[in-house]
């Protein structure tokens, strides 16, 4: 994002318009999207590092990323899926092959990482044993890292560049659950840059 984009965003979220997308601005973004102050601060600390690392730094990429995560996490209020996870029991497509895997590997983090196979894959790629310690994905800072890695691994920056909310939603959700809410959040966040 250029300085003008960042300044517009800062005005929209009510922080000093200095043109620097840093921790304070990101904290305000998370709060405006619904996170409590403590969670917003923790998410922002991680995002401040990882958005740059994973090239989520253009206006469209930023808007799509935050819209999808806000939907998945109930506006950053939930870092662990509210449902028990029993609906994922026996889902071989998620790698849930052992009894209890559905509950153990239910959605966590702002992107709601789900399934033994995903916990194994992203844990191995990030050098953290998520498979044997799945609840750590619910830590906001760890969950933000996972979200950025998932975004990158699924080439979602490319689809954000094309403003393709449908493909992004399918790659995150597996379908189009909550599609209207995702589109509404995307429109709202895009409006912050005007």
UniProtKB/TrEMBL annotation:
Source domain of life: Bacteria
Limits of the Glycoside hydrolase family 19 catalytic domain: 76-152
GO molecular function: chitinase activity
InterPro entries for the chain: Cell_Wall_Dynamics_Protein, Glyco_hydro_19_cat, Lysozyme-like_dom_sf
Pfam entry (one): Glyco_hydro_19
Gene Ontology biological process terms, A to Z: cell wall macromolecule catabolic process; chitin catabolic process
Keywords assigned: Hydrolase
SUPFAM superfamilies from the UniProt entry: Lysozyme-like (SSF53955)
Entry-linked PANTHER family: FAMILY PROTEIN, PUTATIVE-RELATED, GLYCOSYL HYDROLASE FAMILY 19 DOMAIN-CONTAINING PROTEIN HI_1415
Protein name: Glycoside hydrolase
Native species: Acinetobacter defluvii
